[in-house]
Structure to design on (306 residues):
């Protein structure tokens, strides 16, 4: 199983020197990938609660560097690490411009992009980008169609309720063929079915590991019924870590909460249900108050996993 690490992108830790240092250390320690998230703004009166914990928005998101720019910057400071987005809120982007930007990341990194997309949960982020909240799933499907066409290259056109692209030639295409891997974050039955039909894998977070295993098996069953080989669908798990010291190993302990050793055990349990990769995010862990602590956790996890 591969192990990734989330770049210092949010809150006070995020900055150019920190991103360079984190990327280089991840490379040196044997991590397989670095990852970024996607938050547009921190509304003072959110229209919807965050769908985890007590529903409050993390104060870390008040300072959040752009996902793709951060990933591009990191790409320039490594030659081996895969570069993942987990996840871009696909419906709020112009799919033609997004396809072009992600193509550039894949070309400049010589084929290391992993494109993670999701619907998001925040109506505020849709509002500020001028994107209707209604019909977001249909908009996402259409965006995936546009991206697939552009990444295939050659002469393409697209006309839909959401995108009007005149016939055009795209000679700049991703290094990875037929395309960079696309992973989708989804939890609804329709979202899981979308993965089974057209994605390269699933990127869940915040789900009990046994439940995650059942849902992943369900994706495989849907893929098989649709004529796909279930083994073609990967599983990359985001480990939102809460490092608080040793906790009782009972039903009350949430996945990726406790000591570093317990979190590593959780990652191994993810491997047992079929995960190809787990990537560690310590940015929201209680008590993480310095970049040195961030790097120290990177060392600790590497000693047990890489």
């Amino acid at each position: 199983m591969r192990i990734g690490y989330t770049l210092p992108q949010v809150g006070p830790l995020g900055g150019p020197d920190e991103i360079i240092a984190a990327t280089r250390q991840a490379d040196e320690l044997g991590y397989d990938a670095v990852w970024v998230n996607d938050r547009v703004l921190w509304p003072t009166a959110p229209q919807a609660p965050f769908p985890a914990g007590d529903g409050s928005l993390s104060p870390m998101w008040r300072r959040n560097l752009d996902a793709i720019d951060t990933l591009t910057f990191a790409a320039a400071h490594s030659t081996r690490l895969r570069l993942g987005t987990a996840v871009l809120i696909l419906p709020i982007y112009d799919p033609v411009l997004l396809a072009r930007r992600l193509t550039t990341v894949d070309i400049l990194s010589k084929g290391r992009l992993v494109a993670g997309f999701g619907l998001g949960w925040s109506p505020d982020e849709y509002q500020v980008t001028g994107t209707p909240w209604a019909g977001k799933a249909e908009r996402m499907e259409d965006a995936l169609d546009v991206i697939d066409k552009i990444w295939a290259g050659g002469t393409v056109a697209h006309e839909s309720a959401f995108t009007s692209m005149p016939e055009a030639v795209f000679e700049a295409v991703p290094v990875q063929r037929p395309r960079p891997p696309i992973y989708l974050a989804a939890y609804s039955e329709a979202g899981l079915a979308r993965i089974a039909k057209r994605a390269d894998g699933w990127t869940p977070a915040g789900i009990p590991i046994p439940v995650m295993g059942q849902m992943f098996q369900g994706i495989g069953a849907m893929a098989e019924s649709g004529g796909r080989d279930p083994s073609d669908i990967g599983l990359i798990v985001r480990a939102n870590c809460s490092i608080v010291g040793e906790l009782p190993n009972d039903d009350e302990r949430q996945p990726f909460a406790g000591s570093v050793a317990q979190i590593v055990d959780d990652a191994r349990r993810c491997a047992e249900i079929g995960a190809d990769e787990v990537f560690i995010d310590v940015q929201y862990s209680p008590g993480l108050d310095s970049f040195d602590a961030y790097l120290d956790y990177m060392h600790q996890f590497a000693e047990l996993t890489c």
Notes: The chain has one domain: 2-305. The mean pLDDT is 97.
